[in-house]
Design goal:
The protein is an alpha+beta fold. The chain is built from 7 helices and 14 strands. The protein has a 5-stranded antiparallel sheet with strand order 4-3-7-6-5. A 5-stranded mixed sheet has the order 9-11-12-14-13. It binds adenosine-5'-diphosphate.
Length: 455
């Protein structure tokens, strides 16, 4: 049941209820109409026999039966017999056995071999001046049964049609009623994906439960947006505030080292202070960059870029780090590869991925950079033969301050856990698609799909 949507569940439940209700109603109607038709037929039979009995009289040596004997009343056949069972007048149905014994004042049922069924009713009368005679009424019950089976047939054809109509109508109605829920789900999904926090459901004010729910959601989204904005503002403010003291620490550390008046031991200590302050300064710069990216405070200025030349420069910048790590960089970007993009963004994304590919590599490992063009899309891939990322960590690497394993920190000198977060934001902002594939202890490949537009 958990796999079904609410619409399917509601439809299924009331279909079941409708089915049971219709079946019960049908059985109820059939049972009662069967009984009442039976009782009706028996009463008619009794009544007609009684009426005939009332009309028979003996006058001037002849029996007078009234007009009724010549016609068949409804389905009832009437006949009169003398005391010895000889037919005096009237008729019985063709198949009804004439020798059927008389029963006095009791409704009897007779079933023939061919399945035909009759009710019959006899009255023994004493006619003044004539003596005893029998009045018999016979009616076929098969006719009543036929009527009943006709009703059943009509119901069997009509009920499924009605059933389908109700179920379809109900399904459409439930789906329409629950449509706003789908819209709530989509909006919540968009917000949780971090796409746009300013989205609102805006279903208006009303007494309807869903409208009230959507108003509560909108209120929640409003608070969420404010909380996010406060958080970003806080990060931005704190980074700004920290910049000056860190610069002062760095400046003074540099001065102390330049003066050359310090002892060897003090020099080492100041160098350590300088190193840590440098890391803090880099971290602050990254945090500021990230908040700027997240809040859309960066301007994209697209221009024609020669990717082959740019990659040469960026690789050159990383060579010292790569040599230190004993990693070879293979540049497979074809000559004269051109694209239109914001240069600053491309450099930040490229350098971050390249630095990670070196930092999280193994001794003697390699990094391969490729540029492949297919139709209107170019794919920049940076592949390494490094330590890889466990599958369960892959979705989390884009989170701020996320590091797969704190022990990896030592691999990259300036590890902050902010790099990929910024890379992802920059790609999104530029309309690029970034993907990662990785196998633990084998390596990773980061791919960026860039639409090849022209200016
Ligand atoms: P950091 O500053 O720690 O490198 P990133 O946001 O750039 O932060 O990366 C997040 C985490 O993802 C890293 O701590 C690292 O564990 C993992 N990672 C990133 N790139 C690679 C890679 N090429 N190979 C293996 N692990 C990687």
């Amino acid at each position: 049941m958990k796999k079904f949507t609410i619409t399917a569940k509601v439809t299924l439940w009331y279909t079941l209820f409708m089915f049971i209700a219709m079946l019960s109603l049908f059985a109820f109607i059939k049972y009662f109409s069967n009984n009442s038709l039976k009782v009706q037929a028996q009463n008619d039979l009794k009544e007609l026999v009684f009426e005939i009995g009332e009309e028979i009289h003996y006058e001037n040596g002849t029996l007078n039966y009234g007009n009724d004997m010549r016609k068949i009343e409804g389905d009832v056949y009437l006949s009169v017999y003398d005391a010895y069972g000889n037919l005096l007048t009237g008729a019985v149905p063709r198949t009804f056995p004439m020798e059927t014994p008389f029963s006095n004042y009791e409704i009897m049922e007779k079933e023939l071999v061919n399945g035909e069924r009759y009710f019959y009713y006899d009255e023994l009368l004493n006619i003044e001046g004539y003596g005893n005679l029998w009045v018999r009424g016979v009616t076929s019950y098969s006719n009543t049964e036929k009527t009943l089976s006709n009703i059943t047939m009509i119901a069997l054809v009509f009920l499924p049609v009605l059933f389908i109509f109700i179920v379809t109508g109900g399904y459409i109605f439930t789906k329409t009623a629950l449509k706003p829920v789908e819209s709530i789900r989509k909006t919540a999904e968009q917000i949780s994906a971090g796409e746009d926090l300013s989205i609102r459901l805006g279903m208006g004010e009303g007494k309807d439960e869903i409208q009230r729910l959507s108003a509560t959601f909108d209120l929640m989204f409003e608070r969420l947006q404010k909380a996010f904005e406060r958080e970003k503002q806080f990060t931005s403010d704190i980074s700004h505030e920290l910049r000056t003291p860190i610069s002062v620490v760095l400046l003074n550390a540099e001065k102390l080292l330049d003066d050359g008046k310090l002892s060897k031991e003090n020099m080492d200590q100041v160098e350590k202070i300088q190193e840590q302050a440098k890391k803090m300064s880099d971290l602050i710069a990254q945090m500021l960059m990230l908040t700027r990216t997240e809040t859309g405070q960066i301007l994209l200025e697209k221009e024609e870029i020669n990717l082959s030349d740019l990659s040469e420069i960026l690789i050159e910048e990383c060579q010292t780090f790569a040599k230190e790590k004993q990693v070879t960089i293979k540049n497979e970007i074809p000559k004269e590869s051109i694209l239109f993009a914001d240069q600053g963004t491309l450099i930040r994304v490229f350098s971050n991925l390249l630095n990670n590919a070196i930092a999280y590599n193994v001794e003697g490992g390699s990094v391969t950079i490729r540029w492949e063009v297919e139709e209107n899309t170019g794919t920049l891939s940076i592949e390494d033969t490094g330590i890889g990322i466990p599958e369960e960590d892959l979705p989390k690497i884009w989170n701020r301050f996320y590091r797969v394993d704190p022990s990896r920190k030592e691999r990259s000198g300036t590890s902050s856990g902010l790099g990929l977060s910024m890379v992802q934001w920059l790609c999104k902002f530029s309309g690029w698609e970034i993907q990662v594939e990785s196998h633990l202890h084998k390596g990773s490949v980061f791919k960026i799909e860039i639409p090849l537009e022209t200016l």
